[in-house]
Amino acid sequence: MTVPDVEATADAFGALADPVRVEILAALWEAEGSAVQYSSLLEAVGVQDSGRFNYHLSKLTDHHFVAKTDDGYRLRPAGLLVVNAVYSGSYVEAPVREGLDVGGACPSCDGPLVGEYDEGMFRVLCGDCGDQVFMLSFPPRGVETRVDDDDALLQAVSVHARAHTRRANRGLCPFCGGAMTGSLDLDADTALPVSMLVRRDCDNCGVANRSSIGYAVLEHPAVAGFLAEQGLPVDAPPWRFDWCLSNDTVTVASRDSPRVTVDATVEGAETALRVTVDERGRVAGTERLPAEDL
Ligand SMILES: [Zn+2]
Ligand SMILES: [Zn+2]
Asked: Most-buried pick from 58, 80, 238, 262 (CB within 10 A)?
């Protein structure tokens, strides 16, 4: 794991400590990637005192948030990250949602699953026994902009979750862009009601992405293709598949060099897909079986 440069980071965040500087970043964002001339930037931000404006602008260029080029000023990657955090609502009080009807049933007690959002995290829990089956961060503005439409919110969380897993599966950290290493954990101790997991650890930021075996294979093209054939939407939420919530259809094929199979099933379908997962958490093979043979 990379050791953060705390001095440089604290200096950089200090360089943002004035509303005018955040306004400059927002004005450059609105230029959609084009360079902005000094005079246009001054006018967009609306500061009368050019000496004061220059002082704030120099803080942003000194700390790599803004680049000064022959054509004018433009956002650098660090500035872009700040603007993304601003528009995703990361620095204002996050909304709270409770009791969302997400569909699906609890793997422990068969109770109804409910969704909730608090402190930037979306969770799916059992309404009866309280077991948590799913948790992922989701941008606050993504909730606020869908406040009157629960279906749209759940669809958005599902797309977000599945894209997150797709990246992690391919070894790309969804948070920092670092490389992730996958492994199979057959005796996991987590808050989830499953003890067998695929883990993906970021070599750079150290984040650990944990998912059930079923959820980890959901994004594999063979599994996605099988589900599409059965008429399921491509962005169906993982909590709607009971084989993504529990280890009931997982069989350990080997413990020495860990290897498991998970059976992907669809209610009413004549065929199921048996998926083999290797010690790195990768799909090693798939096999179609008559559902009645399971
Ligand atoms: Zn339950
Ligand atoms: Zn990372």
From this structure: 262
Q: How do residues 148-205 score in pLDDT, each as one tens digit?
A: 999 999 999 999 999 999 999 999 999 999 999 999 999 988 777 788 999 999 999 9
How far is Cα 247 from Cα 214, in angstroms, rounded to an integer? 8
What distance in Å separates the CA atoms of residue 185 and residue 192, rounded to the nearest whole number?
13
Q: Would you say 279 and 184 are in contact if contact means Cβ atoms under 8 Å apart?
A: yes
- Partners of residue 36 on adjacent β-strands: 73
User: Rounded CA gap, 165 and 186, in Å?
Assistant: 19
Q: How confident is the model at residue 13 (pLDDT cuts 50, 70, 90)?
A: very high
Ligand 2 center to 38 CA (angstroms): 36
Expressed in angstroms and rounded, the spacing between residue 3 Cα and the centre of ligand 2 is: 12
Within the chain, all domains assigned CATH 1.10.10.10 are found at 6-87
Ligand 2 centroid to 172 CA: how many Å?
Answer: 8
Q: Separation of 114 CA from ligand 1 center, angstroms?
A: 10
Residue partners of 30: CB distance under 8 A and separation at least 6: 44
Q: Which numbered ligand comes closest to the C-alpha of 131?
A: 1
CATH code for the part of the protein at 6-87: 1.10.10.10
| C-alpha of residue 187 to centroid of ligand 1, in Å | 21
Classify residue 28 as exposed, middle or buried by CB count within 10 Å of its CB (0-12, 13-18, 19+): buried
Ligand nearest to the CA of 181: 2
Between the CA of 89 and the centroid of ligand 1 the distance, in Å, is 32
